[in-house]
Structure prediction request, 330 residues.
Amino acid sequence: MGDYKPPFTITNKILAYVSSISEKVGRLSAVSNLESKPHLRRNNRIKSIHSSLKIEANSLSLGQVRDVISGKTVLGEKKEIQEVKNAYAAYEKLSEIEPYSIKSLKLFHGIMTKYVVEESGDFRKGEEGVFNGDECIFMAPPAQFVSQLIKDLFDWMKKEKSNVHPLILSSIFHYEFVFIHPFADGNGRMARLWHTAILTEWKPVFEYIPIESQIEKFQNEYYDAIAKCHVVGSSTIFIEFMLSQIDNILDDISVQISEDNEQLSEYIKRLLEVMEYDIPYTSSTLMGKLGLKSKEGFRRNYLRPAIDMNLIRMTIPDKPNSRNQRYVKE
Prediction:
């Protein structure tokens, strides 16, 4: 089986998307931009986790996901809260993923499904199908073939990674992985995480681009593309779909960075510089760090605009004037 090759065709549409995405990534110079904007990086990571879990029917809201990650108490199903913690742990180690290693795949499945899946970190032993809600898209190959199918896929990737563009290779992997469905649970989450990991190895900026949120917006089209590929026996349609979504999300990121550059006044930048993440500060402490004496000026120029932009949150939002109020950098 050493000559295994996933069936796909490089179309003019695929080549156009690869060219467009490559140009946008280069034009963004987003690595340096995002490195200087930790709040954007954090927000995009939270979006990735929320969307990837929502696709798998996790009911927690974006705010609840943010709170779980921040260590707050959240009222919700224990399993769903654990899924958020697991996904955050996996995404935080994204740069440690070895995208062409089956050992790394199993290790990260163990992280992604800790405490919520019995066969965590191991390939499935039973039969599974791919579902969009209650609708079965297709039945996965029998469990006895999983190990060989995954080996063939990873061997092909290692052999062709210098010949097939990462944008195309990552999309092929995504479809083939979902088709093989190697784990009892967590396959969709792992496919999206691994897709991001392959792209991150190519261009580090992809670590903080929430491709998952774009997929979640077009979830029906996502499953429709998978189903069509299954019928025709080729991943071409799925490659085109994924590249179109990546092309679109890069436009959104460009706007996000542009707006952030315009809206962040020197006052807000100074305020964010003196604050550390997840540490509650009193207004007096912040004024002291900034060398300010006017409470009104501090509130008008620094605090209120930062809160309005969701860069800082109040620990007691229902009582903004509480004497116990603290402010936390998001």
Remarks:
- The CA atoms of residues 24 and 86 lie 32 Å apart.
- The domain at 12-261 is CATH 1.10.3290.10 (Fic-like fold).
- The chain has a mean pLDDT of 91.
- The chain has 15 helices and four strands.
